[in-house]
Amino acid sequence: MSANLKPLVLHAHSTGPNPYKIAIALEALAVPYEVKLWQFGDGDNGLKGPRFLKISENGRVPALEDPNTGVVSWESGACLNYLLRVYDKENKLSPGNSEQDRVDLDKWTFFLVSSIGPMMGQVNWFRHYHATKNDDALARYEEQAYRTFGVLEGQLQSHDGSYILPGKNMSAADVHTYPWVYQHGYAQLSLDKYPGISKWLQAVGGLKEVEAAYEKVPKGEEQ
Fold first, then answer.
1. Is 221 helix (H, G, I), strand (E, B) or coil?
2. 5-33 pLDDT, tens per residue?
3. What confidence score (pLDDT) does residue 4 get?
4. Residue 169 · residue 203 · CB < 8 Å
5. Cβ(189)–Cβ(142) under 8 Å?
6. Is 42 left (phi over 0), alpha (psi -120 to 50) or beta?
7. Strand partners, 9
8. What is the pTM of this model?
9. According to the model, what pLDDT value does residue 167 have?
């Protein structure tokens, strides 16, 4: 990576999983970056406040600013795809160059953003935040979250299970998925029936890039 590269700006808050995806990718690609932390709400330092809405019209994190190209992105998938296109010329986070390799990465990426993430998000909502107790909704989303765990478990059990896609290195599929499944404890979702997921969480969580991301994001500059 060029020594003249200006640090990218990762906009985040310290609690949700999605900003950590981008921090992990930046660490893995050795791209310099700084973190700016925002709060919930519509105040001056809030995600729904006027300053942040100029960066991300959706008022959600992550958002990513690249002073080297002038590109501004939001939504974790868009941010990560940008990093892969611009800064992963050596395919460090890609499992291979064949069409099947690319499709496999797309499959597990979209499975996270369409299934694992939304189901776990709804479990968290109805367990921790919904104003009135709704056991039926919670049970529904718990069932679906466990269903997605079963799909991931099957994939991990189909090979050595260190990473979602077979290979010697973490791929973007792991980058997308790890921060969500890592929060299974907060969601009060047991992994007793999913030994492959437990093994995978330990393997990915022990990577220096992942450890660095989880250390750096909470220490970002408060806005």
1. strand
2. 999 999 999 889 999 999 999 999 999 99
3. 87
4. no
5. yes
6. alpha
7. 34, 65
8. 0.95
9. 85
What is residue 1's predicted lDDT score, i.e. its pLDDT? Answer: 60
DSSP states of 65-133 as a string?
EETTTTEEEESHHHHHHHHHHHH-TT-TTSS-SSHHHHHHHHHHHHHIIIIIHHHHHHHHIIIII-SS-
State both tokens at 161: 């299970």
Residues of the chain with pLDDT under 70: 1-3
Query: Residue 63 has what pLDDT?
Result: 98
Q: Let me know the angle formed at the C-alpha of 148 by 143 and 150, rounded to the nearest 5 degrees.
A: 95
Structure tokens at 83: 């990093």
Report residue 125 as tokens. 């909502």
Residue appearing with tokens 């950590």: 20
Token pair 């969500």 is found at: 180
